[in-house]
Amino acid sequence: xxxxxxxxxxxxxxxxxxxxxxxxxxxxxxxxxxxxxxxxxxxxxxxxxxxxxxxxxxxxxxxxxxxxxxxxxxxxxxxxxxxxxxxxxxxxxxxxxxxxxxxxxxxxxxxxxxxxxxxxxxxxxxxxxxxxxxxxxxxxxxxxxxxxxxxxxxxxxxxxxxxxxxxxxxxxxxxxxxxxxxxxxxxxxxxxxxxxxxxxxxxxxxxxxxxxxxxxxxxxxxxxxxxxxxxxxxxxxxxxxxxxxxxxxxxxxxxxxxxxxxxxxxxxxxxxxxxxxxxxxxxxxxxxxxxxxxxxxxxxxxxxxxxxxxxxxxxxxxxxxxxxxxxxxxxxxxxxxxxxxxxxxxxxxxxxxxxxxxxxxxxxxxxxxxxxxxxxxxxxxxxxxxxxxxxxxxxxxxxxxxxxxxxxxxxxxxxxxxxx
Length: 420
Known about the structure:
Strand 1 and strand 2 form a beta hairpin. 22% of the residues lie in helices and 28% in strands. It has helices spanning 62-76, 109-113, 120-139, 178-183, 208-224, 249-258, 270-277, 406-418; strands at 14-16, 23-32, 36-43, 48-54, 87-93, 96-102, 107-108, 142-143, 152-155, 160-163, 170-171, 233-234, 237-238, 289-292, 295-298, 308-311, 318-319, 335-342, 345-352, 360-363, 370-372, 379-381, 386-392, 396-404. Strands 1-2-3-4-6-5 form a six-stranded antiparallel β-sheet, with helices on one face. A six-stranded antiparallel β-sheet has the order 15-14-24-23-20-21. It is built from eight helices and 24 strands. It is α+β, with helices and mostly antiparallel strands and 420 residues long.
């Protein structure tokens, strides 16, 4: 009895890109998921390949389903590295979009580690390579949004680690209508691997910190062989000691820090996580900073006297490389940050540099609503606040970045330590 929909392609069927003429042969059906069907095929030079296509439903969301597969191809073409599965081709034939990917030897990490888990050092080594892959991805402005063992391929013969399934990924947030995604029942939160802040109406609020959580959860799985559940969590994050007492205290602390419920207490970037995991010294910034595309940008100016400008122009203090220069959502001078001393404490504020269509927004922790910081109406920003450069009620935030103030964090820690 078949548990999947009728196959779109038949074994031995030939398909071709109508523009380039490149031909592919379908060898056999491989799998079916929520987004479509996957096949093993061959290129015209005999190279093995993976062929993905979308199951169209003949409804109003088919256009978006095709768009998502094309967007996956566009994202994958940003990379040429063993850390990310390579895109060979994308084309459309009547009623069928087709994505052709490189064929990977090995298996996904769920198959590799399910059950007994791995030796601690092997689990850490694999996780280190995942973090290097995630760092490469973040520096391109890409968030995967579905990192989990099933979406990481591993080849034991050469220790290659490769991220796969970018169907929910985004580079910034160009033209993806979240209303259509919601109505098409697409979810951005795999239980156990999605961070606690990405739930319900906030499931589209993925950030670098959210992906750090997901990698920490993957490390937990590699150590224990068990997918994380709510019962595995301590108030300080996932604790592998609940399942394996022989895990070192140092490694258990790393897992808990990566999966801490408070995003401010996690590793701030994939590179930070990697350094601690591999025993390197982690330098702590002395100045306030923004985390943008997985990198830290310190504010060294005295903002009670000067302005810190953010935008596309090379003259800005923080230069944002908008990947869509033909229709950029970020202005040449998009936002400015200033500071004001209140009660002996320096408080930071952000606002639009000039009035612009896309705006500057801050996510309110209290209401979960994006609040606009208009020119001459600055909004205070605190450690852990998420700022959006560009926001649309249908498409959500365009580019998000986090703000961290080490002095504020130190003051809060000292205040907490004084409490009885």
